[in-house]
Amino acid sequence: MAERFFGFLLLAVFLNGLDASRPVINQELSNLFNELWRLDVNRMKPGTDYTISVQGRAGFVSQGSHVVQDHASQPLFSNVSESKLRNITTYNHFMNLLDNYERSTGVTEQVSTEELREINLFLDAVLQTQVMKRAHQYLVSKGQSSSDLRLFKNQLNLIWFHLYHRERNSGLDSSGFEHVFVGETKSGTELIGFHNWVQFYLQEKNRHLDYKGYKARQQDLPDSDDHVLNLQFSWHGVVKPVSSAFIGTSPEFEMAVFTIVFLMNTERTTTVLVNIDQCQVELVVIRHGRSIGTAFPKLLSSNSRHVRQHSN
Question: Which among 93, 212, 215, 240 is annotated as catalytic?
Answer without folding.
Answer: 240
